[in-house]
């Protein structure tokens, strides 16, 4: 359903620290609007320049700042939703506390449009952080980079951003962005901390020490806000950069507990080798959300079969490590057949019951989430 014409910012309430918007409003338009008032809307999907808040709500989108600040659902205070029967309901409100009945707001966020159409949202804002610093840690051992992630969190520091890029991704991004990224290392961690200046200075110093302790061969501090912004923009361009390399690019988002990042990175590499497919990995390592990205060619039917098998094994491994088959991109059609691996038969029965009670005719985003047969990520000629 196209909502691009319902794109207004309806209200910025500085007393209650909320902003009320229509679903077609662009995410970055919202963040820019509130930052002019020294306020902050943290969710920042890489597509924020073009993604709409309605899409963010439907997927419960994350972003680079998810480690410290959480994801979209953590900032949704109220919704207006059109139900399949034509009723228009309001959920939640500008309230810190509200336990009147089931939390219907959370029910619709992340439902991928399968329960109703969100027509308005009231979002929580917070004060804009006082300061920010960025460092880049370089590694010749991918697993050492993964261990660093766990070490930082174990030392009770929560960076705003803790991103991982492997060498293939680094090379593609540097060829795309031309900002002087190191391409002769196996992996990097892009780490950002924000908050009061004295706390940021303390945390960045300690994080740099932990990186070196975990075999980082170099730790570089961004010399200016401009350089920090370039590094963030380069990370956001990872998918676009990789997509230039092969005719077909398939992005996934297996997610594991932070303590299992190193194991998951290793598993992805082993799966790629086993199925003879090219997979580059980047993602939000701080919250365990990796993006294994397969570079392939849909015209090669035999390779596409191996790609499907590889991703099925990656999902299986993520779940075995205590994770999930999707951290922020949603289930849709391609991951629907695997959903029961995560939820179990009883969990699926509960979801079907909710769907049936709200949308008995199955008219809301039909065929999504509950599909039982696997569907190829890329349609190929038979």
From TrEMBL:
InterPro entries: FAD-bd_oxidored_4_C, FAD-bd_PCMH, FAD-bd_PCMH-like_sf, FAD-bd_PCMH_sub2, FAD-linked_Oxase-like_C, FAD-linked_OxidoTrans_Type4, Oxid_FAD_bind_N, Vanillyl_alc_oxidase_C-sub2. PROSITE patterns: FAD_PCMH. Residues 1-128 form the FAD-binding PCMH-type domain. Pfam families: FAD-oxidase_C, FAD_binding_4. Its cofactor is FAD. Its EC number is 1.1.99.14. It is an enzyme of class 1 (oxidoreductase). Keywords: FAD, Flavoprotein, Oxidoreductase. GO terms for molecular function: FAD binding; glycolate dehydrogenase activity. Belongs to the FAD-binding oxidoreductase/transferase type 4 family. PANTHER family: GLYCOLATE OXIDASE SUBUNIT GLCD. This is Glycolate dehydrogenase. It comes from Sporolactobacillus inulinus.
């Amino acid at each position: 359903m196209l909502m691009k014409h319902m794109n207004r910012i309806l209200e910025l309430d500085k007393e209650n620290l909320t902003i009320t918007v229509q679903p077609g409003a662009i995410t970055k338009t919202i963040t820019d609007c509130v930052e002019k008032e020294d306020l902050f809307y943290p969710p920042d999907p890489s597509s924020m320049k073009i993604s709409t808040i309605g899409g963010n709500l439907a997927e419960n989108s994350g972003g680079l700042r998810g480690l410290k600040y959480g994801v979209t659902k953590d900032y949704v205070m109220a919704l207006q939703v059109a139900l399949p029967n034509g009723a228009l309901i309001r959920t939640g409100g500008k309230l810190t506390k509200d336990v009147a009945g089931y939390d219907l707001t959370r029910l619709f966020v992340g439902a991928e449009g399968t329960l109703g159409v969100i027509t308005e949202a009231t979002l929580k804002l917070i004060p804009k952080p006082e300061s920010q610093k960025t460092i880049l840690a370089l590694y010749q051992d991918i697993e050492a980079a993964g261990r660093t992630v766990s070490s930082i969190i174990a030392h009770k520091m929560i960076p705003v951003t803790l991103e991982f890029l492997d060498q293939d991704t680094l090379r593609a991004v540097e060829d795309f962005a031309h900002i002087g990224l190191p391409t002769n290392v196996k992996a990097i961690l892009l780490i950002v901390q924000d908050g009061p200046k004295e706390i940021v200075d303390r945390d960045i110093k300690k994080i740099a020490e932990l990186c070196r302790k975990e075999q980082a061969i170099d730790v570089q501090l961004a010399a200016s806000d401009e350089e920090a912004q370039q590094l963030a923009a380069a990370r956001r361009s990872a998918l676009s950069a990789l997509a230039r390399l092969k005719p077909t690019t398939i992005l996934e988002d297996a997610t594991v507990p932070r303590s299992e990042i190193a194991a998951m990175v290793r598993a992805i590499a082993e799966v790629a080798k086993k199925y003879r497919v090219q997979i580059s990995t980047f993602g939000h390592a701080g919250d365990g959300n990796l993006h294994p990205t397969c570079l392939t060619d849909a015209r090669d039917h035999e390779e596409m079969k191996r790609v499907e098998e590889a991703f099925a094994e990656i999902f299986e491994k993520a779940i075995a490590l205590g994770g999930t088959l999707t951290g922020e991109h949603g289930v849709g059609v391609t991951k629907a057949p695997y959903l029961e691996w995560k939820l179990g038969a009883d969990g699926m029965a509960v979801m079907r019951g909710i769907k049936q009670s709200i949308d008995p005719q199955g008219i809301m985003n039909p065929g999504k989430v509950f599909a039982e047969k696997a569907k190829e990520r890329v349609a190929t000629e038979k």
